[in-house]
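Narrative of accomplishments. A recurring question from our advisory board has been how the design workflow behaves on a single, concrete structure rather than in aggregate. To address it, we present the structure tokens for one chain from the evaluation set, followed by the sequence designed for it. No filtering or post-editing was applied between the two.
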């Protein structure tokens, strides 16, 4: 019985790994719809796994690449809300802000970027986010804040 369970778990983990890698290959080839389908399989197999976290991120990236920023934002939010211990939280916050910015949600973008910059000041994503944060403040007509924050 233990041997049967071990074999079943081995097959399942191999399937998860192959679907995730196959999905990444499709993503890299620009086949975003097909990639999303593969990533959804990974999530269905094991919704709370590290592979699922990566699959959700790539779903967001697939939608972002296709210009479907509302769906990308939804995927990134799902990741942030569903996985509080997410190790790459700074990266996800950055890409969430990109999706929000493309929708001209400047207030939400500035809040997301501010959270990123305040929480992860040493992250490379925070450094990349600073100019966009200032641009959001400018677009929101918060000129004094642009001058103060820009210093």
């Amino acid at each position: 019985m233990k041997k049967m369970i071990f074999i079943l778990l081995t097959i399942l983990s191999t399937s998860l790994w192959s679907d995730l890698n196959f999905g990444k290959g499709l993503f890299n080839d620009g086949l975003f719809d097909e990639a999303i389908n593969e990533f959804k399989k990974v999530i269905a197999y094991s919704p709370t796994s590290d592979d699922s976290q990566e699959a959700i991120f790539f779903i967001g990236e697939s939608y972002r690449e296709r210009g479907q920023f509302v769906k990308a934002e939804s995927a990134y939010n799902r990741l942030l809300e569903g996985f509080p211990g997410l190790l790459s939280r700074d990266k996800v916050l950055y890409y969430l802000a990109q999706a929000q910015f493309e929708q001209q949600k400047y207030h939400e973008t500035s809040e997301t970027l501010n959270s990123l910059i305040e929480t992860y000041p040493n992250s490379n994503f925070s450094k990349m986010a600073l100019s966009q944060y200032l641009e959001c403040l400018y677009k929101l007509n918060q000129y004094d804040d642009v001058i103060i924050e820009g210093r």
